[in-house]
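Appendix B: complex inputs.
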Amino acid sequence: MRDISMERVNKTREAILDIIKSPVLTHEQKLTNLAGQADSLMEVLELPEGLDELLNVDIDRQCICDLSEGHAPVRPRYIAPDYAKFMKEGCAFLQLPAPTDLYEALNSLLIFYKHVPSVTNYPVYVGQLDELLEPFIDTVDEVQAKKLLRMFMIHVDRTVLDSFSHANIGPKPTKAGRLLLEVETELEHAVPNLTLKYEEGVTEDDFMLKAIECALHSAKPSFANHKMFKSELTENYVIASCYNGLPLGGGSYTLCRLILGNIAKRAQSIQDFKERELPYVLNIMARYMDARVRFEVEESGFFEHHFLVKEGFIRRERFTAMFGLVGLADCVNLLLKKEGKTGRFGHDEYANTLGVEIMNIINDFNNSHEAPYCEVSGGHYLLHAQVGLAEDQHVTPGTRIPIGEEPQELIDHLQVLNRFHKYFPSGTGDIFPIDLTVHRNPEFVLDIIKGAFRQDLRYLSFYSSDSDVIRVTGYLVKRSEMEKLDSGLAVLQNTTGLGLGASKNGHILERKVR
Amino acid sequence: MGPVKAVVNKIIPFSSVDGPGNRTAVFLQGCNIDCKYCHNPETRGMCKNCGLCVEKCPKGALSLEQGRVCFDSGKCVQCDTCIHICPHDSSPRTEELTPEEVSARVRKQIPYIRGISVSGGECMLQPEFLTALFSLVRAEGLTTLIDSNGTIPFWEYPELMEVTDGVMLDIKAFDCREHRHVTGAGNETVLANALWLAEHKKLYEVRAVIVPGLYDTENSIRQIGAYLAPCLAVSPFRVKLIAYRPMGVRREYADQKVPDQEYLNHLAEILRSYGFSEILII
Ligand code: SF4
Ligand code: SF4
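Resulting structure:
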């Protein structure tokens, strides 16, 4: 462990006092932030040379960002337990036998959730709920089943205080899945996030239409291209947190992101960017991630001691890590400007082609970098189009087209996206607010999803332009809760604050309505 | 004979309101009747190249070249000044296109769309063009719908009907005199078309724009219900009740009363009592 300066200690103490006194943080939010401050005093990782000037600098020059994971990772960032095993066998550590009916199944899950760690301290994955509950759904009559599911979802919304938490359903229609959609349509909750794994020919149209109606009410589910994900991660994958594709029974050790727009600032020209600056930063970020992964596996003790590992709900061999990026659009636009060209990403063919060339460089680098302890993903990290942070200003999420610059026609928008989604097995996605009139024609959305997934788009979200629940970047918040927080009142869910930041800095309320 | 061209007012790549699912909507220029509440009057007439709009365009997107008005889409900001000023209910932003050219523009939307819908103006004024266009897009696996005011007899165009999946038919008033009051034309052909299309399983949707005060809307809906109810046994079709809204309507006609939701529900109830089940209110 390396020493740190007294100046840094005192700065941290001031930050701690601010947290303690904060009028807008709930008690739980304070504890999480206090823990983060304590962790920030640690210096135990073997950091690559050159990292400091890329990571610990002003936000407009930062090229690598570790998304507040802390200096001494005490657990993997994202954990996706094998809940099916828990339903079948129960859990010795939690002293829970296998459930025998719907009451027990839901009760057991709620208990289990409170013991699944993550970077947010809340479970980022709460299970493939339709498959988990289908065996129990007929142990009570349908009215009761719906009521129980309703109470279960309310419980999750009020205790898992973070919409980076994600439930999955599909691709096959089930009774449990249908009831869950009905409940979610009525509740209009922000938590948990919900994804329907869709595969044409497997997921029936009427089930999809129900899901789309639900999405137009409560901004969820989102739709994942099941065929694409399973070709990359096998059937045993989950969608967790925002939209992250990860191995079931494992997860992601860490997620760091490249801020491509700021890397472009370092470059003299497109050629300089491609040949010098980008490879330089790629290399440092990869080695930084290697150090984080090694510490978690070799030193933190998590994989030796946690009951999730001991009882086989997760296995070290099922973990990988996410090599993230933001700001492809910012990067392309800046590079073109540096060369005296006027094109914009999302609109001009050569700008989009430059985007593809940059993605190919990143992809090739990742495929040649030997990542430690990532057997499940072939010894490499998985690329991830990160959705941004509330503090981000002038940073466009992943490979998205900036809000306010979306092509006039949705078809042109989609034709840009389908060049980029394929690079990101651990997640990317685009979001479309939809005009109210579509409520009377949900098949309009269905046709777009079908077309998109035939064109190798990976993940799409829709919400109605007038609904209370809206999708910020990947997660959900309620407009009404943001307004409360903005007027100085404390609110229950952590992500409300992030949403408010994003609506002010990221203009998420100004997306082009389709 | 040269290629059958049509003057195209605009093409909407993704439309959620012109038939089932996602469709590309094509609007042809020119209409044979004159509805008082017309929501896109700029599709009614043919451009006379009078040049009036050219001077009024704030962006210099329009010019007169050899007596014809030319449009530069790169400069246009969609302010709609030109169509508001045009004394001939036309638009300088139209294009003359062949069926092949239109179908090429449609192809771009595959696989996101399930079909196309052609509207107007009145697209049945150009049946040869429609037949050619529909044959082309059908070969691409798309479905084809016509949106029509029903004043032109469909039974006279068997080749077109062969490549048409369905028709969305306006019944702008059931009573012939009222129809004339609303549109300037009688409705004998419209009503005959409704029966003929239903009988030949080509009636996808019947549409009624509800403008209380302009005509007796309740009575009209009642009579449409009674007249068409027997057809439901042949093949089901849906009815769309469209609430009048003043957007886009010519100034002299824009002060009609907007119906409230309660009244629209009441009209839907009347249709239900005749056995109609699929009724959309928009
Ligand atoms: S669009 Fe109208 S105003 Fe313009 S040239 Fe044609 S007829 Fe004249
Ligand atoms: S809408 Fe008409 S008047 Fe307005 S900029 Fe375009 S061409 Fe000119």
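Chain A has a mean pLDDT of 92.
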